[in-house]
Amino acid sequence: MLSEQATKEYESLTTGVGRVELTDWTTVRLSGDDRASFLHNLCTNDIKSLQPGDQCEAFLTDVKGKIVAHVLVFSAAEQLILLTVPGQGNVIVSHLDRYLIRENVELSDDSNDRSWSIIAGEGLAKSAATIQALLCPLVPAPAYLLARAAEHQPLEGEMLARMDASDCGPDVLNALRIEAGWPLFGTDFDGTNLPQEIARNESAIHFNKGCYLGQETIARIDALGRVNQELRQVKLAHAVPAALPIDVFLKEKKVGRLTSASYSPKHEAVVGIAMLRREALDDSSAVLLCDGAPLSILNRD
Q1: Which segments constitute the GCVT N-terminal domain (predicted)?
Q2: Which residues pair with 231 in a beta bridge?
Q3: Do 265 and 7 form a contact (C-beta atoms < 8 A)?
Q4: What region does 175 belong to: left with phi over 0, alpha with psi -120 to 50, or beta?
Q5: Engineered SS bond to 20: which of 166, 168, 213, 259, CB 3.0-4.6 Å?
Q6: What is the pLDDT of residues 81-110, one digit of tens each?
Q7: What is the three-state SS of 17-31?
Q8: What backbone phi and psi angles, to 5 degrees, belong to 89?
């Protein structure tokens, strides 16, 4: 169960209006006339079609098709902004810079100059305040991302006060992003994984955009029709395991691992995200065990 305080915060972020900080998340900025075509050639989604105000989700991939980063891409009038988990700024800038030759593109790690928060909850529809923010897929809708530089904090505070938004903590954010099925790079998957293993094909991979770094591997997997393992939302028949990740078994064979878990008020049970092998996914009658208790798949397809 969530604590009494966390339960109140969950209610704020779902049925009321709540705000939660994305502490230390990475911001990378691309500017210059060639920014869209340059990033388009290095990620899985269609960047060249983005207009100012548009956004998308994408994987940056290496030459073998392995994941370098999982990012949200926001298009502004003269720049592209990449948002992802903490500690990725140097990795992303170094990776992109490796392929920067004559293009008119400038790369900048703005993580220390820009901070982000999520504002969410059904109460947003009743708020008199006008929301000028980015859609947030990390938690169930309605949810928005607010970006700010240090000098804009008082303005954000005034807006949140008009919305009567409650400040919420990371435990509730973890519960909501698991409910939304949003995986975290470095927690639920890493650089050893291929994009299709993360089960974000519809939102993060454009299969008809043309050539890009790693595209050959991703296209080959698409032609084969499946990968050997994929992330899934799961439900556990016991409390949150004391330590994560933890192995998942089919009979006595390891068939995956649970990487994230939290109590979910929506499901009235502990839910999580797990990387599961094909034998666990294909057999709907399979009895999976995690930490000695049954584990069921919420989104098998």
Answers
A1: 4-121
A2: 275
A3: yes
A4: alpha
A5: 168
A6: 999 999 999 999 999 999 999 999 999 999
A7: CEEEEECCCEEEEEE
A8: -60, -50
pTM for the model: 0.93
CA distance 277 to 16: 39
Amino acid at 217: T
Q: Which of 136, 139, 126, 157 is nearest to 264 (CA)?
A: 139
Helices (H), 3-101: 4-14, 35-40, 89-98
Burial level of 250, CB count in 10 A (0-12/13-18/19+)? middle
Residue in the block written with tokens 């705000």: 19
Angstrom distance (rounded) from CA 12 to CA 121: 6
Q: How confident is the model at residue 159 (pLDDT cuts 50, 70, 90)?
A: low
Tell me the three state secondary structure of residue 261. Answer: strand
CA atoms within 13 Å, Cβ hemisphere of 116: 25
| Mean pLDDT, residues 234-245 taken together | 95
- Annotate 98-156 with DSSP letters as a single string: HT-SSS--EEEE-TTT-EEEEEE-GGGGG-SSPP--EE--SSSSSEEEEEE-GGGHHHH
CA of residue 292 relative to chain centroid, distance: 29
Rounded to whole angstroms, the Cα distance separating 190 from 123 reads 36
β-strand partners of 262: 271
Distance CA 35, CA 51 (A): 13
Largest Cα–Cα distance of the chain, in whole Å? Answer: 57
What domains lie within the chain, and their CATH numbers?
Answer: 4-23+114-179 (3.30.1360.120), 26-109 (3.30.70.1400), 228-301 (2.40.30.110)
